Amino acid sequence: MAKYELDATGLLCPMPVIKTQDRVEELEEGDTLEVLCTDPGALNDVTAWCRINGHKVIDARREDSQVIIHLEVMR
Amino acid sequence: MTRQIKAVSLISGGLDSLLATKVIMEQGVHVEGINFYTGFCVEGHTHAIRKKDQAKPKRNNALWVAEQLGIKLHIIDVIEEYKDVLINPKYGYGANMNPCHDCKTFMVRKAHEWIEEKGFDFIITGEVVGQRPMSQRKDTMPVIARESGAGERLLRPLCAQHLPPTLPEHEGWVNREQLHDFHGRSRKPQMALAAHYGFEEYAQPAGGCCFLTDENYSKKLVDLWDARGSKEYEMDDIMLLKVGRHIRPSEHFKLIIAREEGEVNFMQGYRNRFISIKTTSHSGPLVLVDGEPSEEDLQLAARISARYSKGKLAEAVELEVCRPNEEARNVTVKPMSVAEIPESWYV
What we know:
The complex is a heterodimer of chains A (about 80) and B (about 350). Chain A is an alpha+beta fold and about 80 residues long. Chain A is built from two helices and four strands; from the N terminus they run βαβαββ. Chain A has helices at about 15-25, 40-55, and strands spanning about 5-10, 30-35, 55-65, 65-70. In chain A, helix 1 packs parallel to helix 2. The longest helix of chain A is centred in the middle third of the chain and has 12 residues, at about 40-55. Chain A is globular, with a radius of gyration of 11 Å. The mean pLDDT of chain A is about 95. Chain B has about 350 residues and is an alpha/beta fold. Helix content of chain B is about 35%, strand content about 15%. Chain B has twelve helices and eleven strands. Chain B has a six-stranded antiparallel β-sheet with strand order 6-7-9-8-10-11, with helices on both faces. Chain B has a five-stranded parallel β-sheet with strand order 3-2-1-4-5, with helices on both faces. The radius of gyration of chain B is 24 Å and the shape is elongated. Chain B starts with 5 loop residues before the first strand and ends in a 14-residue tail after the last strand. Chains A and B meet through helix 1 and helix 2 of A and helix 2, helix 3 and strand 3 of B.
C-alpha cells in the first residue's frame, strides 16, 4: 500500500477525472491517491467517478482555490 | 453456467443514452458506459464559467447518468484523434461546423475497439431514427454500423424495431420485442419512458452536447482557421473559443475580451501563455491577445481594451501590457470609440 499524488491543477472537467482514472489504473488495491485540482467541479466529478467505479473517497475538500480529493483504490 | 453477456453504452449525458442503457440493463445484460472527450463537449463546468449559466448544475452529465444507472463509466480522451474527424470529415459538416456523421462513426469505431480489447459483446447507442438530420437517418445508420467496423454488434435499443435485427437479437442476448420503435424528432416517447423508469431529472441540451453545433462557436472556429490558413488547432485554442468577446483587427492577431468575472477567472489561467492587457487607471476586463502582434498592434489592442473599461469616455486610460514570462509594462492610450471599431472586426 503506497501513497501517491496527482497534480491536475489547471485542468478543466473532465480532464481531472480522466487523469485520475488513468493513474488509478496503474495502482494496486489499497494504494491511496491525493488529487489536486483547481476546477471547482472536480469536487463533484472526481468523487462521483470514485463512487461509480467502487473506489473509496477518504476525504474531499476545498482549500482556498484548490480542490483536494484523497481516495483509496479498491479492486 | 450461462455466460454473462456484456455491452458498452455510449453515454453522452443526455436522456437518450440514459434510456437506451436502461432498456438493455433491464434484460439482464451487464452494461458499462463509455464517454469520449473531444474537447468540444459541452460540460456543466464550461457553461458555469459565465455567471448567467451558474444556475446550471456544475457536474459532468455523463458521470451523473452513470451514477443514476449504477454502472461504471470509462471516459476516454480522444482530443488528438478527433482532430482528423473535424478537419477532414468524409461526409462534411452540418448546419454549423458539426461533422455529426463522421463523429458518430468515429465514436462507434472507438467503442468497437474497446469491446474487442475488453471482451465485451456489443455496443449500445441512444440513437433514434429520424431524430438528427445527419447521423440519425434511416439511410445513414447502417452506414455508421458498417464503416465503424461494429456491424451487427451495434444495437440502437430505442429504435431497433425500425432497423434490421442485430447480432444481440439473433443470438437471443436481448429480446427484440422489448426494444423500442421510436422515430422522429418528438421527445414524447422518451419522456414517457423516462417517467416509466422513474427518471425525473435529466439533461436535454438543445443541439446536443457539442459546441460544434453552436453557430457562434462555429464562426469563431472558422475565423481561427481562416486567420491561420490552416485547420490545425490546439486545446488552448478551442477552450478560448468558448469564452469572451472576440475582436480581430488583423489576420495575425485577435483580442479575447472577458465579459464578466467568471470569464476573467477562467482566462487568468492563460496569462502565462498569451499576451494579456489589463486596465489600471479604471476598472476593466482582462484581455488576452492571440497571435503575433507588433508593438503598433499592441497599442491598437490597448485602445480597444480601454474602450471596454470604465474609462471608455476618458481622454486617457492607463493599462498594463504583459507578455508571458516578462515584466508588465504600462501604456497610456486614448480609448477607441465604438464608431472606430469596424463591424467586421467582431467575430
